[in-house]
Automatic annotation (TrEMBL):
EamA domain mapped to chain residues: 166-292
Sorted UniProt keywords: Cell membrane, Membrane, Transmembrane, Transmembrane helix
Membrane topology classification: Multi-pass membrane protein
Localization (cell): Cell membrane
Source organism, top-level taxon: Bacteria
Species assigned in the record: Neisseria cinerea
Database matches in InterPro entries: Diverse_Substrate_Transporter, EamA_dom, EmrE-like
NCBIfam families xref list: PRK11689.1
GO cellular component: plasma membrane
SUPFAM superfamilies recorded: Multidrug resistance efflux transporter EmrE (SSF103481)
Transmembrane segments: 40-60, 72-93, 105-121, 128-147, 167-185, 192-211, 223-241, 253-274, 280-298
Protein name in the entry: Aromatic amino acid DMT transporter YddG
PANTHER family membership: AROMATIC AMINO ACID EXPORTER YDDG, OS03G0707200 PROTEIN-RELATED
């Protein structure tokens, strides 16, 4: 299904399709939170990933795991599953709407971590000022978590202490995803095992749900609507991104992806009906700018290398 669609697209059309992933992934944080409010943090996540796994199997087909080494499958499964578990539960365990958006912003440190991982482990050339991008990204998080006063280390620490589980899981999510991307790029993995990874995530979440005995799921119209929307954004996001990076302009797609934190905050603020102060937007812009600086540092070094 996917291969036939790719063959009929021009590079510009493939890029446009790939850009839809930015919209899909920007909606995920707000939708995951809404699902958790209707169906619970664990049960809602289990339903969402189960539906997403089915959608990915329909789009990509059954993954041919024999194309991957056992070592890659082990580590990629560990990183991918760890990422998705931390993402869904960090958002689900957030105490309120504002904290949900903050947790989502911590998650969006992954582009910076991914670039740093490429430099440290994949020998990606980079200019020295990549460090400035790294510092800028973390300074942006300090502004986001500092509260109404903006940049404040003490305010950030006090905020994290109100719910350390969610914030630590969000940071772990960013690190896991960066590790998965770095590993996959390092071995130049051929094929797509995302469906298998999503199936693992859903199985683990269902095991946790039944072992916790957290009660029955709520299958009303609103719950099913938001769960389907969240699963679709996850599954379709991977599908259209795959089209974009396969036949489209990767430079345009990479540049657009660095603005996901801003788009995500906008959508989450709307879905969760929570106003965000000016300081939050300043911090979010710093996170985006920091990721962009890291990316430009590698692009500039790469051009000079050749």
């Amino acid at each position: 299904m996917l291969s036939r669609l790719q063959q009929n697209l021009t590079p510009k059309q493939a890029t446009a399709v790939g850009l839809l992933a930015v919209a899909f992934w920007s909606s995920v944080i707000g939708l995951i939170r809404t699902v958790s409010l209707h169906m619970g943090a664990v049960g809602g996540a289990a339903m969402m990933y189960s539906m997403a796994a089915v959608l990915i199997f329909i789009i990509f087909g059954r993954p041919n795991l024999s194309r991957f080494s056992k070592s890659y499958l082990f580590w990629a499964s560990l990183f991918f599953v760890g990422c998705e578990l931390c993402l869904s539960l960090s958002v689900g365990y957030a105490r309120n709407a504002r904290q949900t958006v903050e947790v989502g912003m911590v998650n969006y440190l992954w582009p910076t971590f991914t670039i740093i991982g490429a430099v440290l482990f994949n020998r990606q050339p980079a200019k020295w000022w990549i460090a400035l991008g790294f510092i800028l990204s973390f300074a942006g998080i300090a502004v986001v978590l500092g509260g109404e006063g903006g940049f404040s280390v003490s305010g950030m620490i006090a905020n994290i202490r109100t719910n350390p589980t969610s914030y630590i899981m969000a940071l772990s999510d960013a690190l896991f995803w960066a590790a998965y991307c770095t590993l996959t790029a390092r071995i130049k993995a051929q094929g797509n095992a995302v469906g298998f990874f999503f199936l693992l995530v859903s199985c683990i979440l269902w095991a946790k749900y039944f072992s916790d005995g957290t009660g029955s799921l709520n299958f009303d119209t609103a719950s099913l609507f938001y769960t389907t929307a969240a699963a679709s954004c996850l599954g379709l996001g991977y599908a259209v991104w795959n089209i974009g990076i396969s036949r489209g302009n990767m430079t345009v797609l990479a540049g657009a992806s660095y603005f996901i934190p801003i788009f995500s905050a906008c959508i989450s603020s709307f879905l969760l009906q929570t106003p965000l102060p000016v300081e939050f937007w300043q911090g979010a812009a710093m996170v985006c700018l920091g990721s962009s600086v890291c990316w430009l540092a590698t692009r500039t070094a790469e051009r000079k290398r050749y």
